[in-house]
């Protein structure tokens, strides 16, 4: 029993010699785990909740983390919380607008206008109303199947030269 009370007394003394502190992000106030805290007595790492303990005899501490700016603080300057500044650029929200939906809408609109134009041409070329059937063929046959004017002129010149 005496042994147990001595152990409790020594553990109380060692806890009194330690100062418990937490490291947090200055913008989000979220505790940072894995921060290396270096003093003359050695190096400790913060736990998953950002807490660490150092002896009261420490006068200055150096903090380093991959994603945060390194910082050296005097123990007189801080109470129990140390704030670190992030190296990463924190963007709150990014909105990206794509053109895929817009392009699909434009393609559908152009197709609809083309169909309406062809329907109007069919109505205009109706032989009953005195329309021109040749202009109707221009709307029905796709452009890629039509012979270009240059190709037609070349063919006509070939025929003329062959006949001459």
**Overall pLDDT metric:** 76
- How many individual β-strands? 7
The helical percent reads 25-40%
Rounded to an integer in angstroms, the radius of gyration calculated over CA atoms is 42 Å
Proportion in β-strands? 15-25%
Strand order of the largest sheet: 3-2-5-6
**Terminal Cα separation, in Å?**
131 Å
In DSSP terms (H or I, runs of 4 or more residues), the helix count works out at: 4
**Secondary-structure class:** alpha+beta
What are the secondary-structure elements, in order, as H or E? HEEEEEEEHHH
Overview of the structural elements:
Helix content is 38%, strand content 23%. The chain contains four helices and seven strands. The strands form two sheets. The chain has a four-stranded antiparallel beta sheet, with no helix packed on it. A three-stranded mixed beta sheet has the order 4-1-7. A hairpin with a 2-residue loop joins strand 2 and strand 3 (42-45). It has 164 residues and is α+β, with helices and mostly antiparallel strands.
What is this structure's SSE topology?
Layout: H1 2-16, E1 18-25, E2 36-39, E3 42-45, E4 51-55, E5 60-65, E6 68-74, E7 81-84, H2 100-124, H3 133-140, H4 149-163
Parallel strand pairs: 1-7
Antiparallel strand pairs: 1-4, 2-3, 2-5, 5-6
Helix pairs in contact: 2-3
